[in-house]
Amino acid sequence: VQLQACGGGLVQAGGSLKLSCAASRSIGSSNDMGWYRQSPGKQREFVAAITSGGSTIYADFVKGRFTISRDNAKNTVYLQMISLKPEDTAVYYCNTIPRLFAWGQGTLVTVSS
How many other CB atoms are there within 10 angstroms of residue 79's CB atom? Predict the structure, then answer.
């Protein structure tokens, strides 16, 4: 299974982006899914997760700004990001929780000040 994230880009601080992550084939609706990010020189960190039942959890630094959602019929998970900050600049990835698949290439989000 390949997880392909897309939707990144260059945005000014305060702007918005919506990321998508699609699986190359059905991975079932029973898996919890998460978004992660990695900034230059830093380790990959957890951003948000959504359970199979739709419950969500967020890292403190994105609470109130990011919203995770999923469409099981499309094997896709989304991350709506608003009020973006320069410190949100990173490559964003998705994967199951616990991680079952190799990391994809991710999608780069660059927030300018």
Answer: 26
**CA dist 74 → 41, 77, 78, 90 (Å):** 34, 9, 11, 25
Reported in sequence order, the residue ranges of the chain that DSSP labels E, i.e. its strands, are 3-6, 9-12, 17-23, 32-38, 45-50, 56-58, 66-71, 76-81, 90-97, 107-112
- Separation between Cα atoms, residue 75 and residue 49, nearest integer Å: 15
* DSSP reduced 3-state for 60: helix
Cα 13 from Cα 32, distance rounded (Å): 30
Q: List all residues 6 or more positions away from 88 whose beta carbon is below 8 Å from its beta carbon.
A: 37, 62, 81, 109, 111
The pLDDT value given to residue 55: 96
What is the structure's pLDDT at 4? 94
17 contacts: CB under 8 Å, gap ≥ 6: 7, 8, 9, 11, 81, 84, 109
